[in-house]
Amino acid sequence: MEQLLEILEGLHPEVDFELADDLIDAKIFDSFDIVTLVAEINAEFDVAIPAEELIPENFNSAEAIWELIQRLDEE
Amino acid sequence: MQITNLLEYLEQTVTEVPDKAAFCGEESTLTFRQVSCHSRRIGSFLANKGFYKKPVVVFMKKTPQALAAYFGVIYAGCFYVALDEEMPRHRIELIIQTVEAEAVICDETTAPMIRDYGYEGDVWLYQEAIAEEEDAACLAKIRDQQTDTDPVYAVFTSGSTGVPKGVLACHRSVIDYIENLSEVLGFDRDTVFGNQAPFYFDAALKEVIPTLKFGATTWIIPKSLFMFPIKLVEFLNEHRINTICWAASALTIVSSFKTFDKVKPEYVKRVVFVGEVFPIKQLNAWKEALPDALYVNLYGPTETTGVCCYYKVDREFALDETLPVGRPFHNTSILLLKEDNTPAETGEVGEICVRGTCLTLGYYNNPEKTRESFVQNPLNPMYPETIYRTGDLGKYNDRGELCYVSRKDYQIKHMGHRIELGEIEVVVNMHKGIRTNCCLFDDIKKKIVLYYVGDATRAEVAEFTKEKLPRYMFPNVITQLESMPYTANGKIDRVSLKNMYNEGK
To answer: Where do you find CATH 3.30.300.30 in chain B?
Structure first.
């Protein structure tokens, strides 16, 4: 989780990712962020996020992204 | 007879397919009859207010109505300046100042925002303008006075001094562009475009104007779909979109997530990429999913009206190769000039310079910058002949195809946009907690890297850039330094910063 927060903070230093739970709905993230994020998750955690997991619900909060990473890591 | 006004495309098409959908958005659709009716009314409205040959700002959401407003401005014999609610405040203010706008057309969403930008001229709602009765005699009189060298739009590009430059295009250059582009890409009445480019860039002309010319249809794709590729492809299928002219980064979003394993575009037969180098790996993924589609790489600066060169992908490329820029459109010519203004031979690098009807009129309200880039052809001392110096370096490969090499200056290509790193630096320096700063571009990871010295926190700097700059110009990596490295002659030492960055901060 620490590593993930670091990546997120790199994208948007002005956002408090421990609290934010509307990253997509509030238009904080856009497609550029999502692409960067997926690439960094792939590099840091060796987890490839497939297209069917690219849905708003998985990216609204750091918590949700973290759950996604863990779930994909187990598979 | 040859057409001399863009609106003639619409005027012909509306007699043939008046009730066909021209432009479709999330909330509404306009048929050709509606586009014609609305734009003629807006034209009459502006003309009756006394606007002629003036810039008219259209500040609306990305809707079919915004397009009708642009055409309305052209009917009035004026030229449009497109703004968008997602543009940052500072940029909107600069554009309004540069064009010295006296008239703005808004929608319900943007109308309350415009006064905050220090704008004091007239503001009208779209609904108000289309309530005006059409004044056919007045429109005919305006048309009679016009020539094809009259301006159509001003599109703003990044400027190194921090002030964006308004590139002014005329009817003739846009018609030349659309005729030749349509020939190469084979557009027709059955073409269904899926638009991605914002309307405030000339990139959107590729869909918008051929839609008028052929009686085709353009779907405006909601921006949020570019985050979620499966939904995006489903949208393409639902609306039977067969032609996509997108930024390479938008195409990459679809292919890099292996979207095609789940769902494939069923109708797409033309895939056109523009704005930056499209990685071969991604191109191959598209070709594997859609082997029968036409793939075309487009290249060209806004100053040459849209694009000036094209390459139809006709062979396989290795992963370490880059796609050629190809050859100029019909009626456009490329000069490759070396430092000493002599032509570059095959294999030699030179600056890509463009000649022909495609040249725009220059920068609005900026004769100085216009003179710097729109210059006399140095190979011709005998009569006036203007070429545009792109600042891009290129060379010819063994097949005689033009290839892009790099930029001459600090301008970069990022997310399909042309950016002057200097413009970001100027803006960051405006923050009171910043003493000095320097921007670099990481070519490999495609990141804008900002180094700064000052009391401001990284979060404050990020927040500040968000207010002042468009999304694609936000620094992706922000690092605070105790002191800035300088070269012997007192300039910021970009090389040592770059080394610092490569070594991991």
So the answer is: 413-502
